[in-house]
Structure formats: C-alpha cells, structure tokens
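Forum: Protein Structure Q&A
Topic: Joint prediction for protein chains with partners

I've read a bunch of threads here and the consensus seems to be that you should model interacting components together rather than docking separate models afterwards. I'd like to see that in practice. Below is the full input, 383 residues plus whatever partners are listed. Could one of the regulars post the assembled result?
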Amino acid sequence: MTEPAFDPVMAEVRSVLENADPVPPAVIAAAKGSFTWRTIDSELAELVADSADSLAGSVGAGVRGETAPRLLTFEAAGLAVEVEVAESGASRHFVGQLVPMTAAEVVVRWNTGSASTTADDLGRFVVSDIPAGLVSLAVRRTTDASPVVTSWVSV
Amino acid sequence: MSVVPAWPTARDSVVSPERFAQNGPVHPLVKGVGVDDRSTAELVAAAHAGDSSAWGELVDRYGGLVWAVARGFALSTADASDVSWTTWLRLVEHLGRLREPEHLGGWLATTARHECFKVLRRRGREVVGVDTDLDIESGEPTPEVVVLDTERDRLIWTSLGEIPQRCQVLLRALAASPPASYVEISAALDMPVGSIGPTRSRCLDHLKKRLHAHHVLGGTDQPLGGAT
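Posted by a regular:
Agreed with the consensus. Here's the joint model:
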C-alpha cells in the first residue's frame, strides 16, 4: 500500500481484504446490468407482507419452506398483488390474485427471462416453472390504469 | 479486479480512510473525484433520465460499500451477491423517489443492511448488529476458504472473522475502495454518526486483541489509544 498509514493494522486489513475478498466482477456486472430493469412509466408495488418473514421467529428453521406455501403481498396505489409461492426443487409455481379483481396481462421477470400469462376477470393468474431467485411481476390491466411493477423479491 | 480499471486512480485521489477517521464525516461528494466529476446527486438524476454511464459510475462508487456491508454481516459469497444485486435493483426502482439523492451511499448501506437481515432471517440465524451489545462476539468466522499468500495474512483474515459483527462491517466499509464515509458507516450499522469514531477505535482494539492472540502482533505493540 502506498497510502500513508495512520494505523498500520488498518492498512494490512485493507490489503488482506483486497486479496481475499474483492468485490467479484460478476457482482459488479450484475449491479450494472440491473439498470436494464428500469421501468419508466410504471407504478411500484412494494412488498408489504411476506409470510416467510412473519414465520421466521416462531417456527423451526429449515422445515417451514416445505410445509406451507409462502404468501407475498405487494401494494401500489389502487392495486394489490397477492402471490402464493409453491416450491418444487429449484422451480417455483405462482398462484396470484389481483385486488381489486381485474383482468390483466401479468409478466413474471427474472434475471435470464420472463413468463407471461393473463389474469382472468376475477384477477386470478397462475405461472409455473419460475426459476428460484430474484423475481418481479409486471401487471398491465385491461383498463387504462397505469401499469404496475412489483419490487424484486427472492423466491 | 480488472473490471473497473479506474479504481486505483480513484483510490489514489480520494482521502485515505485514516484521514477520514481523523477528520470525521466527509462529504459524500469526495468520492470518486477524478473518475467522473459529477456529484452523486447529478449521477442519480442522470441515471433516472436514462443515462447508463451515470448508473455505471454509481456502481463504481458504491459497489464496494454494498459488498462490504453484505460480507461484514457474515453472509456467504453467494448470499452477499444476492444482497448486492437486490440492493441495486431497489435503487433502480427508487431512482426517481430518493429524498436525498446526495446521500445515496447512506441509502444503499441501509438498504443492504435490511436485505442482509432478510437473508439471515430466512437462514434461521440470529440477526446481529442491531440492538445487540457491541461486545458480543459474532462467533461466525467467515466460512469461505480463501487463498492468501502468507501465514500472517491468513491469521489477519481469521482474526477479522472473530471480532464482533459490527466491527466486521465497520472495518470492511473503511477498507472498501473507495472507503466509506462515517455517514455511510452509520447507515450500515444503524448507529449515530457521532459514535462511529469511538466504535472504530474499539473495533481496532478488538482486532488487535485477536492479532495478539494469534501472535501476529507482538507484545510491544502500542495499544490503540489515540485513534479518535
């Protein structure tokens, strides 16, 4: 290190971390690539409830994933997106409900792809074979309401 | 790291962490001077308007901070990668909604901490770092097997994994490139800015105790008293 070291231990720590634990290039690449997910005209539906969070403190770890499906609730102004997540190995199965009930085009987006389906007049939709990992849903209602995207969540 | 060739230049041109420590909180705009002289707030505005180079510069400035927070909370490399990506996706969602874009580093550090705790909860592990006493040992040495040149470096790495979790976050953030400001560290740890300086001293003391225990530091080494 060429920096004037106020504390030589800190300089050594920096050197060790730079060698042993640098930011992986793939992590930087993923961060830069996330810009492509920018949506300009959509409203954001934030994750307001996640059953995995509320169960974590009370149920033994490691088994809850297999016993009950996880329920996620996203909310934007005027639209809630509820998703039940079922696990099957490394893939996920979504059963969703739009509230209030409305027909819509629903797209599930992930790092390497996406899957689209339609929600029926009662706001119900199903999407299968979603890879485990970070996902976001985009909802375009058949009315002229503005499109909604959910925040990213790991499933 | 060869992905961001501008790093060495950036580091040389910014204030060293030791001077950060002496001078206390440093204005976030000090970061990255010499690479892209737009302020962080200007970069946020440009990225929001669709400028991907501005986005890339933000990642260059703060990618190390986000990584330091995730790894400091003892996440595996895989989990830390997820936390990092999630944090940046949160920023993509919120680019136009930041109340104080000039304090982006603090926002990212806070977001990364929240995402870390989500992962830790999901893993069924006790969440450390908030509302816990500083002196509680983490007991979670970082699990990765790393390749280091010398026995001394290996022992420094081991010692880093043996100090309280907060200290791991703090020292990693200070060691990041470019180094985190006290404002950002206070966001990462959810602690008042005013306690970061004293905490830093205590963390270095913790580390030095471990280094002594591993015989990396000899008995004649000065105890760290004046580093505030």
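Residues 1-33, 128-143, 223-228 of chain B have pLDDT under 50 and may be disordered.
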